[in-house]
Amino acid sequence: MSKGRQTLLACALVPALLLPGCAGPNLQGRDDSPLPAANVSPGGQTPQAGDSQERQPDAKQPDAHPTETGARKPDEGGPQADQPHAGSPTTDQPGTESRQPGETGPASDRPGSAAADTQELAVYRGPVEHIFFHPLIAYPTLAFDGDAMDKGYRDWFVTVPEFERIVESLYRNQYILIDIRDLYEERVENGRRHLVKKELRLPKNKKPLIISIDDMNYYDYMRKNGNVHKLVLDGDGNVAAYSRTPEGNESIAYNNEIVPILDAFVRAHPDFSFRGAKGMIALTGYEGVLGYRTQDAASPHYESEKREALKVIARLKETGWSFASHGYGHRDAQRISYNSLVEDTLRWKREVEPLTGPTPVYVYPYGSRVETNSDKYAFLVRSGFAVLCGVGPAPYLKYTGEAVMMDRRHIDGIALEQQGERLAHMFDSRQVIDAERYRTAAKP
After folding, report:
1. How many Å apart are CA 301 and CA 296, to the nearest integer?
2. Where would I find the beta strands (DSSP E) of 239-377?
3. Whole domain around residue 217: which residue ranges?
4. Could you tell me if residue 61 is inside a domain?
5. Model pLDDT for residues 413-434, shown as the tens digit of each residue
6. Of 122, 251, 388, 409, which sits with the fewest C-beta atoms within 10 Å of its C-beta?
7. Residue 37 near residue 70, CB atoms below 8 Å
8. With contact defined as beta carbons under 8 Å apart, do 330 and 290 qualify?
9. How many structural domains is the chain composed of?
10. Number of H helices and number of E strands within the chain?
11. Residue 141's CB: how many other CB atoms inside 10 A?
């Protein structure tokens, strides 16, 4: 593995590397859990006392984005996007290796789109972009406040305006959301199952895009540092974000988290979604799911938390969202023992799968993938995970016959500040960056 790829794997996947609690508990009481958060820096090196990363303040002021209850109703649409321009990248981009993933259940089970079904479709042969985010920073004053979490939030998260600008640019540049199941199909030959590449047919001049969200569990540290608290359903069955504002007020909003923002954008721009696809939510389980504390069956609140979580999950599935395993305890699959991986995976299946339903997708915590000829890989495939997602600097999709391996690009502060050239075909990071992320850097 190249040094560049090792660095990406070391820094790409989460607050888990920098923020307390996100790495998950040592469920087996062994010494093979991930390194403590403080021991790893974005570059994969042990930081020295007083080390800091130099950042230049943005000259622009951030756009206003209210987070109060009802700031934007679902039927008012999402962020407005300009029409595609002539400078958008072309569909075919040579020099990218083809790689792809697997799943149970046909993609046709998803909510359909009449617009997509009536459009003329063409075979797409270029790379497939897969980008991922963490829950959005809804309250920058809590995230960028100079405390121990400040740097982690600047490195691993994006703000609401940044996400909205990215979505607008992706739309202008002719990307269209697809479901990961559109990339492969299952065939049985001589009694053996094989996953093969599926011909991808899209509306003309459109380029496929998969968006995934990691750690949408709303861990306790997230609730204290600027993320929303949980996803809820409003009286009309729409998904919204519940939180307590920095002032301590309860808020139900549609404009400060990825799910309701993307739902609204697709309502306003249905040609941004192919047959109703939205995104994929990768969940752990050690602090419940989607903000509901479903990890403790002995809790007096367990049944009510589970009941509410199931309602939200059902609605998400109805509206084009899917789920993936991110491991139960967010443990590094490459570093931990085989037995620890088995125990962690089985616990996810016992506690989380009954809520989300079966999924064919495993998103490696930290982006740290296992080797394809290893016992760990064979176990994950036997466990029903046909699509294994790591992290990389460019689109990567490979079919092994028994599984599909796919890399994702991390979209966060590090990517915006340091990897703009790699992302320029999707969006201009200079135009995306929110001045709010330099709030503490500007303090005397």
Report:
1. 9
2. 239-244, 250-253, 280-283, 322-325, 361-363
3. 3-24+37-44+78-438
4. no
5. 999 999 999 999 999 999 999 9
6. 122
7. no
8. no
9. 1
10. 14, 16
11. 12
